[in-house]
Inverse folding.
């Protein structure tokens, strides 16, 4: 029986990899720039105006101190104001581009129970920048025109925000109230100070009353620890410093309205001082929020600066050693915190423009 011999054939399999496993890298800078810009715009939100808010309030503090103490370098005040101006213009331009290319995200921010409050921040920064300006006089036509240009958005947002608290079924203050709600109060009080500085006393009283009445309503609502306050994220706890920023700003506004640091201004100053001490005595409240750098850390800076401005006015009125010591302490704390947060921001610049999960997680507390 013959055996069958099957010839062996070698089969070669060649595998090509048409798709490279390596990620494509942009060798041309012009190809990468639009993607980087869009990423920045999509991550940007109104909370970043805390940075310019801190710079502008610090410029106002230095302007006040240089005016009262001629031995301080005036050049520092000018440099700080120009830095604040450059920062504010840059943030405004970026946010304007965001309104053009990412209008849906702006609408989400407007509907967010925390994010909507920081839509006041650009106007507050502009008003503080105007009041700290070394180039414009309060009675000039340009100054008054710019004041109305910056104050108009505040009144528009007041009508929207305050009106919905007692007219909209799903947005009652007891549900929507959170510490960031006090930003709207600060906006009205800063505008009141600006109006009083120009001599528009009736306008200043109107804005002051609007701000203080809503401050009392918000303060009492938050004091009762209603369900809305329990939805405030841990990473935003530096915003608790707004509790003393509002009465401190009210004290500054009333000082300019009345023309003197009288009893009402002192009462508001003492209230802000008490709330500040209460917060400082509870470091565990802020312990979790300082584990990782966040743009919310800038909320430490400008409330302290408002309190420092109050202490300066109080020391000018009372003129004793205790008042002078308070002025020195709070001005020093304000400058040190400002410099510290600025250095931390520079060291964590890569983390600064990451998309904020808090702001885009929900539109209201009851949606969670």
């Amino acid at each position: 029986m013959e055996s069958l011999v099957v010839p062996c054939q070698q089969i070669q399999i060649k595998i090509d990899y048409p798709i490279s496993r390596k990620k494509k890298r942009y060798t041309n800078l012009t190809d990468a720039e639009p993607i980087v810009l869009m990423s920045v715009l999509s991550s940007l939100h109104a909370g970043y105006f805390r940075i310019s808010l801190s710079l502008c309030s610090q410029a106002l503090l230095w302007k006040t101190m240089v005016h009262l103490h001629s031995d301080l370098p005036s050049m520092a005040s000018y440099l700080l104001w120009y830095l604040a101006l450059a920062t504010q213009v840059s943030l405004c331009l970026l946010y304007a581009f965001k309104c053009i290319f990412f209008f849906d995200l702006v609408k989400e921010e407007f509907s967010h129970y925390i994010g909507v409050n920081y839509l006041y921040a650009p106007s507050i920064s502009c008003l503080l920048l105007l009041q700290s300006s070394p180039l414009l006089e309060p009675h000039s036509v340009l100054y008054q025109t710019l004041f109305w240009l910056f104050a108009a958005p505040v009144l528009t947002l007041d009508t929207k925000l305050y009106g919905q608290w007692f007219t909209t079924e799903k947005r009652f203050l007891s549900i929507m109230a959170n510490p960031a709600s006090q930003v709207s109060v600060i906006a009205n009080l800063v505008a009141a100070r600006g109006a009083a500085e120009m001599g528009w006393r009736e306008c200043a009283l109107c804005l002051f009353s609007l701000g203080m009445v809503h401050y009392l309503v918000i303060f009492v609502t938050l004091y009762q620890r209603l369900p809305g306050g329990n939805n405030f994220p841990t990473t935003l706890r530096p915003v608790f410093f707004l509790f003393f920023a509002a009465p401190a700003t009210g004290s500054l506004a009333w000082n300019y309205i009345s023309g003197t640091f009288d009893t009402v201004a002192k009462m508001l100053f003492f209230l802000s001082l008490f709330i500040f001490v209460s917060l400082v005595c509870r470091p565990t409240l802020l312990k979790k929020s300082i584990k990782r750098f966040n743009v919310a850390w800038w909320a430490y800076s400008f409330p302290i600066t408002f309190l420092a401005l109050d202490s300066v006015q109080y020391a000018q009125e009372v003129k004793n050693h205790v008042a002078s010591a308070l002025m020195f302490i709070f001005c020093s704390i304000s400058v040190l915190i400002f410099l510290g947060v600025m250095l931390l921001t520079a060291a964590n610049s890569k983390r600064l423009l990451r998309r904020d999960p808090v702001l885009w997680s929900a539109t209201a507390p009851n949606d969670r």
In short: Residues 17-32, 360-364 have pLDDT under 50 and may be disordered. Residues 362 and 368 are 6 Å apart (CA to CA). The radius of gyration is 26 Å. The first helix runs from residue 29 to 43.
